[in-house]
Amino acid sequence: MKNKVYQPATISEALDLTNSEKDFIFIAGGTDVIVNSKQGNAVADVMIDINGIEELKQFTVRENYLEIGTGITLGDISRDNRIAELFPALREAAISVATPVIRETATVGGNILCENRCNFYNQSEWWREAVGYCLKCNGDICIVTGGNRRCFSKFISDTAVAMIGYNAEITIVQSAGEKIIPLIDLYTGDGINPFRKEKESIIKNIILPTDKNFRSEFRKLRPRRSLDFTSLTSVVTIDSNGIIRIALGGVDPMPILITGSVNDNLDFLIQNAVKKPRVIDNDYYPRRYRKQMIEHFVSTSLNNLLKI
Amino acid sequence: MRHISLKINGKSYDVLADNSEMLANIIREKTGLTGTKVGCNQGSCGACTVMVDNKPVLSCITPVIRAVGKEITTIEGIEANGNLHLLQDLFVKRGALQCGFCTPGMIITALNYVKKNPNAGREDIKEALSGNLCRCTGYKKIIDAVCEYVELSSNGVESIPVEELNGKIIGSSVPFIEAEKKVRGNAEYADDIRFKNPLYCKFLRSIHPHAKIDGIDVSKALDIEGVVYIATGSEIPEKFGVLTVSQDETAMAIEKTRYVGEIVAAVAAESNEIAEAACKLIDVQYTPIKPFFTIESSLNDIGDAEKIHEHCKFNNNVHKKAELRFGDQKEGLKNADIVSQMNFEFEGVNHAFTEPHSVAAFWDENGLTLITATQVPHYVHRALSKVLKVPLSRVRVIKPYVGGGFGGKSDPFPHEIIISYIARKTGRTVKTTMSREEVFITNHGRHPSEMTMALGASKEGKFEVLDADIAIDGGAYGSFGVVTSYYNGVLLQAPYDIRNIGFKTYRVYTNKPQSGAMRGHGAVNSRFAIESLIDDLAYKLNIDPCELRLKNFYNENILTVGEFRITSNGSREAIETVMEKSGWREKFGHLPSGRGVGVGCGFFISGSALPIIWNEYPQTVVHLKLDFDGRVLVSSGASDIGQGSDTMLSMVVAETLGIDMQKIYVLAADTLLTPVDLGSYSSRVTFMCGNAAKSAAENLRLEILTAVSKKTGCNISELNISEGKVYSNDRKVNLEWLEAVDIVTAHRGAITVSGNYISPKLGGNFKGAGAGLSPSYSFGACIAEVEVDKNTGQVRIINVWGAHDCGKAINPLAVEGQLEGSWHMGIGQAISEEMKYYNGLMLNNNFIDYKIPTSLDTPEFDTNIIESSDPEGPFGAKECGEGALHPVIPAVANAIYNATGARITKLPIKAEDVLEKIQNAAKEESVYA
Predict the structure, then answer these.
(1) Sign of the dihedral through C-alpha B342, B480, B293, B842
(2) Most buried residue, A33, A46, A272, B374, by CB count within 10 Å?
(3) Which of A5, A224, A227 is facing B63, going by the closest CB pair?
(4) How confident is the model at residue A1 (pLDDT cuts 50, 70, 90)?
């Protein structure tokens, strides 16, 4: 792997590079991108390392919301008192990612843009040749399902699930200017191209509303208590207006969001949460079990939150 | 490439590198600071952790450009003025390291964390270290050391005193003699050794599980600048294998490939990158043929398909059938008052040592020298001679520091042969280090197994009859498989007295990486089965599971039904100890629903009484040399792979000679310089090499006393050596060690003596009688306490109380380390580890997806050493490195049954299976209600 590496100091420098370079990838913490490129996925001639951009590392407290710079590490997220107080599920999500050492390098921006994963994709080039390349690496077929249309690689960001539960928005910056979109809209649901984002754009920050008095619960299914990617992440929140948000990760090519209200039939919400994700057998746990766990996690969280 | 300036440990380095090169590579290859290790090269094991501006960073996934202008600290920068940092010293003195490969990363991570969290508690520390995988220690001593460091440093303590042994060495907890080197990052593992102008070798591996090779075109690859040699299978056609009876493997596939990952060609080039690029340009034409992936498909007649190996006797892929019967099991089971019978399934597991296979070879005026991460230099020596057709006298195999083995480095390997061959062809040193993916597909791990087992007992709970039908999946080649086939059955005949016992094992070939020997070899899965049946009988008979076992244990000094000679036997003491320590009687049957305790027992050999290659050479020989300087050189072929055998040798010799360990120098595992030892497998080293070293030291002692007696006129029976002095009972002779050395070396020079170990003749006169024979057996018991979430089926192991009879703990610190490491590895197999395949291709060939328990997943261990004093072991010692693994897995499963009523018959234990069983049990209950 021999790439040219640029280390822009500002967002605008980084955006300029996207105009002058054709074949590039961004790296933030790099803890996933670099492993992927070592395996021959995510390869490009040029790496634009945005890790040194101070503008991306700002915590900004506004009147009704908090802006979290995407360059902030998961370690710093997990130690921030404001987040612990207002968005405890985000703190728990951050602590649940990878390992303590990785969290000191991995950024929250990198986490929400973490490439989807699949047993048949996150492998060496030799391995993927041996298995016959799958849809996600320019092959003709999804090896898990045998289908030739859809890639079901898993969306695995834990922090995005939490932030979607808190109804987060993101600021995307491009040469043309900035735009703010709901975080959930960042995701396409297509396992091959999971992000609805111009390649030449950078997500500057994540905006979390601070005036909603969220109650929330975070849960994660994984075989070990460290290191593992998620097999199911669920965050359930209820805001001051009684709006329920059920956000799920690790079970579909994109995060799943079910919204409702405390007055709705909760069983209906739960069943929606079980039905909506396109769970397939590309995980440590089998499909059926993960479905069962969605039901268990969501109903337990709803019970816990509504008890209070 | 450009000039990059780095500041490492306060010193500036100017290197030529690409900005995108990984920091680990620069540190290791371009600054020579090889203390930083690479275990996975994917940021998932933590071995490569360094500090960059006081932040821990995984250097294997950090582009070097990120470290420019920053302060980098590696393990070499932790000590100050030649003195170990307190945490390094604690790692040494508290036994927080074994193989030492994860140690640098572990220390860096821990130091950084404690610096920022000076009041960290035990749970915090477990969490902080949960990204640093250790495969040897079970984490306990690491966490202990870090906790002690927190406490000491909060009290301002900067160093801890050296503990004096006061003359008594055997039985004292002695840090490994090489431990300081390991915590400083100075111990050289195979990949750390630097050579002049080496070539780097990479392998092209088969992408088909079973395929004819129609042609290999290497021309394009040869055209690349920097490619020096490309070898293919037909150049090295001689077959080899660790067992004389299964020489079924060649260095590379020749006419066909038998598993995905088998080496088809090897490229030696001026750099790893060039070799890798060249591999991609080799064009191999394959014709795939029908592959076999399951035990069932290989057991049955395969019709018109092609067998995996021509030499299989029938039209199937059965490699070996092993059967032994004592008594009539059918009849016995029919007549027993009560029978428990179950079917069991076990996935394969891998050793997952942290140091990848690594090797270097060169030829010079002395023939071939191979430096390799191996447990068995002797068998590598023989295999190289045979395959490369070079006299035994022209082959030298050196074992450097080895980063763990657990059985996974105990075969001669294709890569060792290939690079030796290419080194001869090119006249240059050739080296190769495997990726983690290659380590996994090289495998030789525990056999995936299926078995049906039945145990019959009287209504009083006396075991009467055992029958086992076993099939094991050997993968593509033989390895230790014939032994594994027997061990699965014969190692069921203790620790319980069962007179009517029989088994039949089929080992089949499949088109997967080969299975082989792994810690607890051959007996782990069948031990799980029998201990589960015993548990089931206990509930059916309404007898406490511990009491039921106590009723059936063999005593000391007996012959088992298959004529194993059991001498010392600490079974009773082991189970009684864990019963007491765990509060078994208060807990069993009295815990809240979802919580449970379970017990398991086991036993294991202390070395095989019969050597693999049948000859009259002793099983091990140890030489001692004493010269004018008073130092004793111990030379032994024993391979220290992190278990501490060098330290054991030093302790045994020092104790026998009555001198301190400072006067001992251990030279080990170099087939030119050290006498033959058969290797570090079958838990033989302490027993056999310990005995040989003791015997050599006794011979040297006699030489010294004879010389002193002759010189002083004092009768030899009046003379003693201890505490570094040679003296008579009346103290009229009272010599310092060096004075005595002067006397014994006068007119003669250096003294060399020898000791050896030959197992006594053991066993019966029937076919298969030799399998499992050992001069001594270890015994043990574990109790596990678990909590099961009845809504999810998730199992949390809360505590493990373990006791192991090692005869005599020569070095309790090392024994505890072996026990805790064994329990850790057993827990991995119990709850999370398995090798998964898709069409013969290993799916989880990395440390993210192959799930070794982290520090957070490993329960607290209560470690108990039982000392039954073996009559033939050195100072009473016997094995402790493998046997402890056996009881822990069934203890966990039995605890789950106790907690939930879910009987586990498949490993690893899956939450979904537990949940389903809990739900089914609930349904049944409601039907009866």
Answers:
(1) positive
(2) B374
(3) A5
(4) low
Rg of chain B over Cα atoms, rounded to whole angstroms, equals 28
Is residue B493 scored above 70 in pLDDT? yes
B260 touching A (Cβ < 8 Å): yes
Q: Which residues of B touch A3 (CB under 8 A)?
A: 18-20
The closest of B367, B443, B381 to B417, measured between CA atoms, is B381
Q: How many residues does chain B have?
A: 929
**What is the per-residue pLDDT for B129?**
98
User: Which CA distances in Å does B290 have to B218, B287, B867?
Assistant: 27, 10, 54
Q: Would you mind telling me the total number of residues written for chain A in this entry?
A: 308
Residue B477 tokens read as: 């080649």
Domain A4-117+153-307, CATH 3.30.465.10 — does that match?
A: yes
Instruction: State pLDDT tens for residues B393-408.
Output: 999 999 999 999 999 9
- The DSSP annotation for B713-777 comes to ---GGGEEEETTEEEETTSSSEEEHHHHHHHHHTTT-SEEEEEEE-PPP---SSTTTTTT--S-E
Backbone Cα Rg of chain A: 19
Question: A38–B855: do the CB atoms touch at under 8 Å?
Answer: no
Element containing residue B548 per DSSP (H, E):
helix B545-552
Q: What pLDDT sits at residue B928?
A: 53
Enumerate domains of chain B plus CATH numbers: 2-36+47-73 (3.10.20.30), 86-185 (1.10.150.120), 199-289+354-404+409-442 (3.90.1170.50), 449-609+766-922 (3.30.365.10), 620-757 (3.30.365.10)
Q: Is the bond leading into B908 cis (omega within 30 degrees of zero)?
A: yes
- Which chain B residue's Cα is nearest to A120? B843
Q: Are B484 and B519 in contact (CB under 8 A)?
A: no
A102-112 residue pLDDT tens: 999 999 999 99
Burial label, B438 (beta-carbon count in 10 A; 0-12, 13-18, 19+)? buried
The whole-number average pLDDT for the span B58-87 is: 96
B55 contacts in chain A (CB < 8 Å): 104-105
Q: Is the pLDDT of residue B929 over 50?
A: no
Question: Residue B838 above 70 pLDDT?
Answer: yes
Q: What is the mean pLDDT of chain A?
A: 96
List strands edge to edge, sheet with B199-205.
Answer: B227-232, B263-269, B199-205, B430-433, B358-364, B367-372, B395-398
Q: Which two tokens stand for residue B144?
A: 């202990």
B61 CB neighbours in chain A (<8 A) are 30-31, 34-35, 38
The domain segmentation of chain A, as residue ranges, is: 4-117+153-307
For A165, A206, B877, the CA distances from A258, given in Å and listed in that order, are 9, 20, 64
Say if CB B390 and CB B369 are below 8 A apart.
Answer: no
- Distance from B1 to chain A by nearest Cα, in Å? 9
pLDDT band of B923, cuts 50, 70, 90: confident
CA distance linking residue B158 with residue B84, whole number of Å? 10
Interface test with A, best of B260, B791, B916 (most A CBs within 10 A): B791
Mean pLDDT (whole number) for B15-30: 96
- B915 to A292: CB separation less than 8 angstroms, yes or no: yes
Q: Using CB atoms, which residue from A3, A27, A38 is nearest to B42?
A: A38
Give percent of chain B above pLDDT 70: 100
- The predicted-structure confidence for B749-768, as pLDDT tens digits, reads as follows 999 999 999 999 999 999 99
Residue A233: name the closest of A254, A261, A262 by CA: A254
The overall average pLDDT reported for chain B is 97
Please report the ipTM that was assigned to this predicted complex. 0.97
Residue B467 has pLDDT above 60, yes or no: yes
Between CA A162 and CA A217 the distance in angstroms is 9
Token pair in block for residue B408: 């996974």
CA pair distance B579, B598, nearest whole angstrom: 10
